Known about the structure:
Blueprint: H1 2-25, E1 28-34, H2 41-51, H3 60-65, H4 72-83, H5 89-105, E2 108-115, H6 117-121, H7 127-142, E3 147-155, H8 160-176, E4 180-186, H9 198-206, E5 210-215, H10 221-229, E6 235-238, H11 246-255, E7 258-261, H12 263-268, H13 280-285, E8 290-292, H14 297-300, H15 304-315, H16 319-331, H17 337-351
Parallel strand pairs: 1-2, 2-3, 3-4, 4-5, 5-6, 6-7, 7-8
Helix pairs in contact: 1-15, 5-7, 16-17
This protein binds adenine (ADE) and zinc ion.
Amino acid sequence: MTITTTANTDNAAANASALVEKAANAPKAELHIHIEGSLEPELIFALAQRNNVTLAYDSIEALRAAYAFTDLQSFLDIYYAGASVLLTEQDFYDMTMAYCERALADNVVHTEIFFDPQTHTERGVAIETVVAGIDRALADAEKRGLTSKLILCFLRHLSEADALATFEAARPLFARYARLIGVGLDSSERGHPPSKFERVFEQARAMGLKLVAHAGEEGPPSYIYEALDLLKVDRVDHGVRSIEDAALVTRLADTRVALTVCPLSNTKLCVFDDMTQHTLKALLDKGVAVTVNSDDPAYFGGYVNENYRAIIEALKLDSDEVYTILRNGFEASFVTPEERAALIAKLDANWNRATA
Ligand code: ADE
Ligand code: ZN
């Protein structure tokens, strides 16, 4: 009896590790990555030295040791301090290229990247400098097989007026940079509901931009309803607290509005006590279009493949479930129908499936 149980456990572990490897090798999309959250401590220190910026930590190890977060705000305080080393176009290029190298290594073939212009403009960096550096790196990465889009995020802890002014300053960039296709909403969620940004999202919608918003990460399901009904978002970032509202889950499943879920982020920021408590599988079981992403990989212990590993192991996902998540990433991406079909065909060939 004991022998059988041990054999079963060994089998399950072997199956999980084969599936982790299969997922790692699969072509995939990443739809929720803050480029400032890809700044590794080594690069933070290198840029601080290059730009004569003084950091509150005297070594890479001391900085990394501070990455013990209790909630979203405790992380954001360190994340904004890390971003303070970014000053020149080359800095934004270097940060973005470092992320692209990691993404390529994880077999990401399409990525949709958030950036926070207000974090930089309030330090005197021109918004054009930010976008030019990021876009130049993305153009170089595209030559190596990584396509991309860029999404400008408003910081929700700042005022509506600040978001409106940022959007005005960014208007010419939407015409100049083909990759810049949408707006999003991030930063401190509690106390800053989506309704605060209804008017700026209305203006973005009038321009035909894609719309996303963080909602239901720490905030209640009512914030997800606001993102859907007031901001009229195309995707919800995180959205894991939707599980608390059955009608909302049904609505998400019926409308196929995708959730860009970030498992390692959620456990590092104590949204869930541990990965076995994560609601991703429950949402998937109910037909919600769940995707898997890294959020701020330099801070949360891993890039996108580590996120797949974490959920495959903790939630005991099977091969069909992992395929569905990978496919959802392409279904929910802001590419053309032709590009989507080609990406899904690539996944199906890799996964040994006939394209439906
Ligand atoms: N900015 C960077 N990461 C974020 C997150 N997980 N939630 C809200 N804002 C963010
Ligand atoms: Zn995020």
